[in-house]
Amino acid sequence: MQTFPCPFCGPRPETEFHFAGDLGNLRPEGFLEVSPETWSSYLFSHNNPRGESKEIWKHLTCMEVFTMNRDTLSHIVNSSTALLPEGEA
Ligand SMILES: [Zn+2]
Hints:
This protein has one helix and six strands, in the order βββαβββ. The chain has one helix at 36-44; strands spanning 3-6, 10-13, 17-22, 52-59, 64-71, 77-82. The chain is mostly beta strands. The relative contact order is 0.24. 10% of the residues lie in helices and 40% in strands. The protein is globular, with a radius of gyration of 15 Å. The strands form two sheets. Strands 3-4-5-6 form a four-stranded antiparallel beta sheet, with no helix packed on it. A two-stranded antiparallel sheet has the order 1-2. The structure holds zinc ion.
């Protein structure tokens, strides 16, 4: 089993985490004006890169959300950083 580093709790088993999306995949603005195709792309299309990947994860034990940089080939986690509200970074 792989271990992921939570920035708040430290290394924990991967089963305690939930993938929350690609970093930078922003929600479309204009709720009523957005086409079904745009919503579908936002919700279901992911980058799935080969190699370095920047993703958003949630640790289900502490419920904190953070970014994780990892290599999808080697499974090496390069960093995990807390997501802070704007102005607190
Ligand atoms: Zn945690």
